[in-house]
Hints:
It is built from 5 helices and 13 strands. The chain is of the alpha+beta class.
Amino acid sequence: MGVERTETTDESESLYEIMERSPEEAIPQGLSGDWWVAHTKPRSEKLLAADLARLGVPYYLPLRRKQTRSRKSGRLSRSIVPVFSGYLFFNANEQNRLRALVTNRIVTTLRVPEQERFVGELRQIHRVIAAQVEYQVHGQILDGEWVRVIAGPLEGTEGIVTGRLSRARLILNVGMLGQAVSVRVERSALERLGRPPF
């Protein structure tokens, strides 16, 4: 076994601080611009976030801590990586959107058509990441029952449930990306709801 090594930078740690904020602070509603999805150039998400911060453009980049072990040396490496590889979300008017494009880190931008729903979806994802529970990212899931967690660190989080045993997975969609995050939950900690509020 090799010596543990950390590959996180001060800038990555600084970007990760947003994950410790409340969902309402991390993804504010009522900003003057519109929310946009930026499809970034490869491995440019954190660089774009730093650029937008310098430009004063509000953004949200969900991040997670990742540990990997080298097959050759056995060393453990730690890094901070985006939850949704290749994507960053920012709030801007047309002038600030163009300023973001000038960073040359964006392939394309998509305006979010349902702003309120999108903010709600991102806040759900943020709540799971901030709770530091194990989760997986996968393609969007459309079927299943809409539920709310009524106990534990994810209390109040709503999503689609899958699984048939006592332990289920709660699916939190980000419709604009066609991706989702899932987290294990006890079925006994769930209550059935009608339809999503956003």
